[in-house]
Amino acid sequence: MEGLGTTSTIDVQEKHQFDVTSLQGYMEDHVDGFSGSLSVQEFAYGQSNPTYLLSSGDQRYVMRRKPPGELLKSAHAVDREYKVISALQDTDVPVPRTYALCTDDDVIGTWFYIMEYVQGRVIADSITGPYSNTDRSEIYDAANDAVARLHNVDFEAVGLSDFGKHSDYVARQISRWSGQYEYTKTVDNPYMDNLIEYLGNNIPNDDSCSVVHGDLQVANMIYHPERNEVIAMLDWELSTLGSPLADFAYLCRFFREGLRNLDNESLGIPSEEDYVQRYCERTGRDGIDDWDFYLAFNLFKMAAIQQGIAKRVLDGTAASKQAADVGAAAIQTSKVGWAQIDKSVKLD
Fold it and tell me: Does pTM surpass 0.90?
C-alpha cells in the first residue's frame, strides 16, 4: 500500500470515477465537522481497494471503496476494515480515526468508508532506500512493536469476539487461498501444487488466537514524519481472528525474500533470530515452533494473492497499473515458499 500519507496521488482513473456531488452530500450528513466543496484524487498505489484523498479547504480525509465489477466472494471487505479499525481506536495499536461506513451502493456505486488522513511517511523501500543503519534498525523494530501491540489486544474486550472463528485459522486460510488460487489460476504452477498438499497435511498444533492483520509489511504502516515510530497501520482488508504466529510470520517474509542474499548487519537490519526473539519478548512467548511452516504458509498466501491480481488484470478490475508485474511474480514467490520446506530447491 504505497503512498498513503504522502502526496503521490493522481487524477481519478476513468474506471474508478464516481459522483463526487453525491459523496459530498453523504459526507455533509455523516462526517462530523465536514463542510465545503469536495475535491477528489486517487492514490497512485494499490491493487485491491481503490483509495482516494478527499479534500475540502484544509480538511483532508481518505476513502477506501470496493472496486467496481465482478469480485471474488468475501474479497474487498471494506466493512471489515472499518469494523476492526474502529474497534482498535482506544487501544495502543496505531490506527487512523474512522468517520463513516456506507453500505448503500446508490451513493457512489460501491460500499466505502471514510477515515482520517494521517500525515507521515510510508516506507516502501526499507531495504534499498537511503536510510542509515540506525534508521533501518528503528524502522523494523517499530514495525515489530506495532504488531506485538496488535497481537496483545484482548479482542473480546474491544468488541471483536464475533470478528472470526477462534480456532483452525491456518487450516481455514489454506482452504480459502487454495480455492481462490484455483479459481484465478492462469498457468500451471507445480510449486503451488506442492505447497497446497504439504501445508494442508502438516498444520502445527497451536491454539493461540488474536486479532490478525493479514497483510503485515512495513509498507502498510505510516511512520511519524520525523521519528521512526509507527503512527498508523493500514490496509486491514484481510483482518480477522486467527493465529498471531502466522500473522507475524507474514511480516517476516522479507528475511527469506528481499534479504535472502544480503548482509543484514551491513544494512542495520536485525537478524531473523533476533527479530523473532524481540517479538516473543513483547508478546510473552518462549519461542515459535514450526517457524519454517509459517513462513512457507505465508509465501503460499502471497503467491495466491499475486495470482488473483494477475487474473483481475485480465478481467480489467485490478486497481494498479503495475498489477501485471505483481501477478507475474506468483511463480517465484511460491518457489521461495516451497524452498522453506524442500531445502533442495535452488534459489537465485
Answer: no
